[in-house]
Amino acid sequence: MIFFGLGRSFWRGTAGCSSLCLLSFLVISPVSAAPQPSAADQELWPNPEAVPMALREVVVLAFEKNLDIAVTFLNKTSAQEEVTGAKGVYDPTLQSRADYSVVDEQTSSIRTGEELRARNAIETSSNALSTRTELTQLIPSGATVGVGFSSTHTMIERTQLPDENYSPYARQRAFVSIRQPLMTNFGPRVTNAGIRIAEREREIAEARYHQEVLDQIAAVMSAYWDIVFTRESLTVQLASLESARELERINATRVNTGSAPRADLLQAQARVAERENAVIVARSAIIDAQDQLLVLLNWDPEGEQWTRPIAPTDSPDEYDLDAAFDDQLLVSEALQRRPDHRATELGVDVAQINRDVARWQRLPQLDLVGEYGFSGLGDDNGEAFDRVTENNYEDSMIGAEFRYPLLNRRAKANYRKSQVELDRSRVTVRQSEQEITRQLRAATRQIRTAQRRIVATTAQVAAAREAVTVERRRLDTGGSTTFNVLRLQEDLAAAEVARVDALVTYQKGQIELERSHGTLLDQLGRELDVEFHFEDQVAEAWWRKTQSER
């Protein structure tokens, strides 16, 4: 379970440990040359200009604005369009053709008369206008069926035997046709392969979209806790710096009064410089962590947020030291829940479909073809059409077409390649299983380690704080040295930072566990009272916005 400590102010949780590092008594000599604290070092949390942000807020913002989520949403939308496009294979096709021809030729004719019966060669000149329109449709068996109509209007002029008349005539024909593959491209498995692949690709895109949401939300939450850690570290470093400066001022006074050697003052001044450097590094780490979060939240690059600090309002101080995990059960559940693993399994389906199609393509092409129609002849198109409708003049054709490329190396190579791709996709599934196992084991190990570290560092902080108090008292009575006090103060600061690191590591381990388990959003919905709607909330609003701006 993830613990977030909602509604708690981060600075409130750290003010106590910081104040314990500061000693209340202070005597400042007017002749002391010690530097005074700068305004930056006197900064307290929360900063008046800081923007308070709860974990719930950053999660919702990331869910709505993260660009990586938006990109995968667009990929999902594109994959849906691919399905629509793949189904277009069943769209009817209307095709039409028109030809105009002029022909001069010799033909033979048998001529009878009272005294002459002979075969004469006749020279003719003709011109014709032909049109053909057909509507075809693919059906799941792989066959293409069609229905059409053709029309030819012919004008013949005789150049010999002028005593005979040739008038224009028109021929029209209505027909149906079919071409059915019997080997290659036969059956619904091949015909629907493109649609099935597009549907699997759409499911893969959806799974990747869901996984991207999980990954980005987890990254945002981890970035939030990174800011918490860096701000806590800075608070500790500021307290440690102020303790060193206090000791520097005391030693300066003692040196001025002759009760302490100058070496004590030099040691204190060296520690002040060292801790000033640590404060500078801690401040830079805060800015780096904040920038990382702002990028994940898709913040306006020109907005003022980039120049204003973020003040987390959630504290990492809630944890369960008794939490236990069944790694084997977690892995089994994750394999059922993880969207990215589902995507790899769907990749196997795609590879299998491609392999099945490639297997059919190795066969020869043998198509059954047929056509059946009615025709009519007349002096004009109207008369010819009337005779077509009388159905008196039928024609039909049935046949087969065979084609086979010798050697057929391309089809055979494509089949072998598809088998390799299928094997590769199966290996990818296995790799996914191993990676999920590794991630879950690493997350549970991180949590268990953090649990032990919390116990150890809590005791370490208490002991270090007591040691500083005791050593300061001894210094005041002359029983210790400045060096010893400074060393113990550094130990206390290191212990406090280590404890905060353990707390944050625990929270980040919980995040990684839920992400690896595939239950992060479910857990967040319960913990943060947030509802996540994949289909209509995340990048869809962003998509509609971009469309409206076009």
What is shown here, in short?
With 550 residues, the protein is an alpha+beta fold.
Structure, explained:
The chain is an alpha+beta fold. Helices cover 57% and strands 18% of the residues. The chain has 13 helices and eight strands. It has helices at residues 10-20, 55-65, 67-86, 188-191, 193-257, 262-296, 327-337, 339-361, 381-389, 409-476, 482-517, 520-528, 539-548, and strands spanning 51-53, 93-112, 117-138, 144-158, 169-181, 310-312, 365-378, 394-403. The protein has a six-stranded antiparallel sheet with strand order 2-3-4-5-7-8. Strands 1-6 form a two-stranded parallel ribbon. Strand 3 (117-138) and strand 4 form a beta hairpin. Helix 5 runs antiparallel to helix 8 and helix 5 (193-257) runs antiparallel to helix 11 (482-517). The longest helix has 68 residues, at 409-476. The protein is elongated and about 145 Å long. The two termini are 44 Å apart.
